[in-house]
């Protein structure tokens, strides 16, 4: 016999820990869009809210879209998603906090208007972009598609893209071909937080010359990470993708396979190819969903032919941003200069390198009754001395309420930098300064002394990149020390740290990119002249002896000649590589790289001169070192500007009359005083009492769980008849209004809300405008667990929620009770358990755990 039903236990998603950190954003900053016509979309969105602590008013239900999961027009995008999203932000008071958008599967990922195709995520980021009027179609790179947020190293709220015509959002699709796979991506993203992975990132240069073009960006990403002592980002030459246990992978392949355990939580992975963003469409290229299914938390691919512009794909510097502590979405969006054709997929808040601070709120306890002007004193402690806390905000029931305190850079503070044991270079913080303006100002002062210090300063957000200008002085000989003083200010809130006491030398190899154009005639020639670092000269030349020879053939002959020359084989020689012939693509041009054979800036000082007969053209012109990548060759260091205090003690007077009477969740959120702005939150639940108005909320069925097919009934009873309205709220906002009645009864369809955890509370308003908010009732909506039996093979099956744990129990004697047979995690919407039949009657029961 089968037990037909068992209900699970309540999950208290709102009971947040005393100190939880979110880098550059949290569930408070996320808007979750669900397609109400897709049960998978609704369930995934509900689970996202539960795991990320997203307030119920931050959920947007798309109720009118029935056009599929792949593409929609700009008009449909506008009316079905963007306008409702902007309207919800305005009507629900979310303008101060809305930064991220999660599109919960079964929402189109392509916006298509004839030959103009953008991704939905990029259209939410900075608007729909049309192709440039140059006849190249989707292979163009229109000016207004540039992303000013890229490479900014600033909080997104301070650096939204300057071409966005409305609010801008860091939007990501959370999707896959099935709900279980999408849920797995969500869970791995959450598991990534503050995990501090040490696994390797591979930057793979492949043999596919059209798709390996990002390799020129690899050295910078490796170097920037090494400056901050992360040596786990490495470049390699391989076409393989058969890796395991990686934190990231960038490659350039159209087809590939990945191991199911290729990545650890929080990893980013993508390939530079044309149609990897065709997530749910048949294509001759592997969709980037393969990265998520292999364990990555984020990926990116284009939804239309982009051509191989590196600007349209993630720069591997995204791994440096992650190492700094930025969330996945922040790191990814900062790394793509022209993302209009690319779709971002994954879990946006994953932050493996976020550094949680500590928080306490000893002056306020859960259940406290407060009234009038209440003085509250939450306190925050920094995770490290270089990560001070700069400000704290108060959120009431998940909505931003007020700034509690703020410690920006104090005007009059003095920052000092000493280079190579010389005199200290001082900078005084100006009035109304921000981190970026301090970094820019200090960099300017340092550059005024560059002739003396032989160091160049480049400001990037709250960071200053220092590059040594002495080619023959090792970085290990270039020292830096920094300091901060109170100066004329009343307190010291501005801080400066150096990444390391001495500069770091590069592991990169210098190169020069050579291009030769035009169709050669008989007798045309190309000559290469090198002056090695020991002052010896080597000259090599090729001459065309046959009509019809292409420039690519001539250049390839020169490449072979260079690599075969004995005079260039030694450590101070060169190697020619990465040859590309554009003739098959309709251009009389060929290109190759000339590398120094030894890494480092000094070895790149080999000089090269390229000359040709008058019919051909070679660039670069003139004699120049092999240092096109000079910014990757100079020894480097970083300076970081921060603001705030290591102990941020808040003394905040709150006018509680600005809140409705009744029950509220107060969230005090502290922010790290860097561009990363990691959040630390401490939560208290209180009851505000400033008037005599009160109300009670009762619910049927009783308990904390309900089956999806049930109707939920809520009764709101006020303590007065002088009421103007009673409004019930749950996931997605208002669920109904009753006017001019002291008692209201609401019937809510559990199926409409979808599987998952949901809060319910009511707000009553009297004729005088006084309001009262009831305590919150939580329901975990689960499928009715109806057990079914199959005979061949003998198996028990029941409906399930993915990524939820179920316990199967059995007995042959009801008087002796049930014993556990199996504990299983659901990987899809139906669970199965095979058993061996016996001659005795058996009873089975299934329950959620919890």
What do these coordinates show?
There is one protein chain. Strands 1, 16, 19, 20, 38, 39, 41, 43, 44, 46, 47 and 48 form a 12-stranded mixed β-sheet that branches. A 4-stranded parallel β-sheet has the order 3-2-5-8, sandwiched between helices. Strands 10-9-11-12 form a 4-stranded parallel β-sheet. With 850 residues, it is mainly beta. The chain contains 12 helices and 54 strands. Strand 51 and strand 52 form a beta hairpin. The protein folds into 6 domains: 327 residues, no CATH class; 92 residues, Immunoglobulin-like; 101 residues, no CATH class; 117 residues, Immunoglobulin-like (Sandwich); 92 residues, Immunoglobulins (Immunoglobulin-like, Sandwich); 61 residues.
Q: Could you write a compact summary of the structure shown?
A:
With about 850 residues, this protein is mostly beta strands. The chain contains 12 helices and 54 strands.
